[in-house]
Specification:
The chain has 227 residues and is mainly α. It is built from 7 helices and 3 strands; from the N terminus they run H-H-E-E-E-H-H-H-H-H. Helix 3 crosses helix 7. It is elongated and about 65 Å long. Bound molecules: zinc ion.
């Protein structure tokens, strides 16, 4: 991104990168482990989605999508999009489906961090690439107002990554409550497994927020050292 290599960049980039790699390893490890543990009730991820809808009275469409861990809830058309790995009868599968249904509940109840996050999406989409561009241009041309505008534009990305944390953690909390209250997971070791799978996933969002924040701090440190 820069026309010269700045060794202090590593100082800012490395902690976030290491955290991200660790989180990804935790996701893969926990997912692989609990994808092999069948639910003692025999319920699959696809069935769990039906149970959640009956229990909460919240109907949403279900789409089956290819891939592994590609699951997402789409608030635009109120659909749960479940991957091939999540429709199966494992502890990991029902945990992922419960988490996505947690997002559907947040959407239905107008959960504030989710609404705030949705509201800044256009600013984030633009700021993620315009911000660094303005910043570099401003620094190179010694137009510091322009560099500062770049920092502000990029800051939207950081706000988005930080707002993602309550959204993701709350979706997992709702999902785990549903898994317990519906009796889909009854064994304490199964619940522990679901908690581990979702906890590792939450860690990837913490890493993403840390990376965005450290990038912003790096821009600020360059700005402070200008001239
Ligand atoms: Zn999520």
């Amino acid at each position: 991104m820069f026309y010269y290599f700045d060794p202090t960049y590593m100082l800012f980039a490395l902690p976030g990168l290491l955290l991200a790699l660790w989180a990804q390893a935790a996701v893969r490890g926990n997912y692989a482990r609990y994808a092999r543990v069948p639910t003692s009730t025999g319920i699959t991820g696809a069935q769990a989605a039906q149970v959640f809808m009956e229990r909460t009275g919240l109907r949403c469409g279900i789409n089956h999508i290819p891939g592994m861990l590609t699951d997402f809830y789409n608030p635009a058309n109120k659909t749960l999009n479940l991957s091939q790995s999540s429709v199966q009868g494992s502890v990991a599968s029902v945990a992922v489906v419960a988490h996505e249904f947690g997002h559907a509940l947040q959407d239905a109840q107008g959960y504030l961090p989710m609404r705030l996050r949705g509201a800044i999406v256009p600013a984030v989409t633009l700021g993620a690439w315009v911000g660094p561009l303005l910043f570099v241009l401003g620094m190179v041309l010694s137009m510091y107002n322009l560099a500062w505008a770049g920092i502000i534009a990029y800051a939207a990305t950081v706000v988005f990554a930080i707002l993602t944390l309550p959204v993701e953690i709350n979706a997992s909390r709702r999902g785990l409550q549903l898994l317990t209250s519906t009796g889909i997971l009854v064994d304490p070791s199964e619940l522990e497994g679901a908690r581990k799978v979702l906890g590792a996933a939450a860690l990837t969002y913490v890493a993403a927020a840390a990376q965005a924040l450290l990038q912003l701090l790096y821009f600020l440190s360059l700005f402070a050292r200008r001239r």
